[in-house]
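Write out a record, focusing on structure:
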Amino acid sequence: MAVEQIWTEAIQLALECSPNTKCARIKGEETVALEQEQKTYEQNLDRLKGQEGKFVLIRGDDVIGVYDTYQDALKAGYEQFKLLPFLVKQVRVVENIQFFSRDFTQCPT
């Protein structure tokens, strides 16, 4: 499928979706962006451990596939789901914790 066709379909789908349609919902419930996908990742982590370092594509409750590169997983996500939310995450048995605070103080220089 040509990139132009994918984008055209994605734009059409986005225009049809609104907060009141199932395009913005998963199983009829409001969720925080990618909350369900993150839960699905956590629930399937034991099964995914053998794929550590690869990239998993998740939509809602479904693990769609595991890919060697981030780019391959992202491309598959856009081809299948257009502008609908999906998660691409690197499989890690031990997560690297990253914390960013909004409470920054000015550097005393």
Observations:
- The chain has three helices and three strands.
- The chain has one domain: 3-90.
- The longest strand covers residues 62-67.
- The two ends are 54 Å apart (CA to CA).
